[in-house]
Amino acid sequence: MEKPKSKKISFKSNLLLMDSTLWGAYIPVPSEIAIMFKQNGISRFICNINKALTTHSAIMPGGSDTYFILMNKANCKALKLPFGAELMVEMVEDTSEYGMPLCEEMQVLLEEDPDFLSHFQKLTPGKQRNLIYIINKPKSSELRLRTAIAVAGHLIANHGKLDFKMLNEALKNK
Known about the structure:
This protein is an alpha+beta fold. Helix content is 41%, strand content 25%. The protein has 7 helices and 8 strands; from the N terminus they run βββαββββαβααααα. It has helices spanning 31-39, 73-79, 104-112, 114-122, 125-136, 141-157, 164-172; strands spanning 9-14, 16-17, 25-29, 44-49, 53-58, 60-63, 66-71, 86-93. The strands form 2 sheets. A 4-stranded antiparallel β-sheet has the order 1-8-4-5. Strands 2-3-7-6 form a 4-stranded antiparallel β-sheet. Helix 3 crosses helix 4 and helix 6 packs across helix 7. The longest helix is centred in the C-terminal third of the chain and has 17 residues, at 141-157. It is globular and about 45 Å long. The chain starts with 8 loop residues before the first strand and ends with a helix.
């Protein structure tokens, strides 16, 4: 069966706090929407929340036919809403290559360094997104470039193996 053309799905939900010390906030997703996306093989999304925040995300299973979108502290802060507040969520399939935006500094480094590109492409999509997030995080272009170079150096030196403890040390010394 062919995937349907990407269309925007909207629903109302709430910003809630998890009963866990591991995760923070989340947005419940109606099960019929989550199941429809799953049946169509769609796993990554661009979410627009209250027309105030656009974020790349995934629908996570919560067990017992419940689903949710995780919200990090930065996204919660950007919404400027208390927990329990009602939200309007618009979701559309994320068709980008890595499931999140790639900063220019990393894009250039991937294009210029075939070893980095090769090692990066062999990582799981989740590890790729994790590294992209780490590289995208600094506000200045210079820091993003230094971070990207540190990540590239780590992957090349370790023959594509990702060791977050070692990487964190390398990032401290960049």
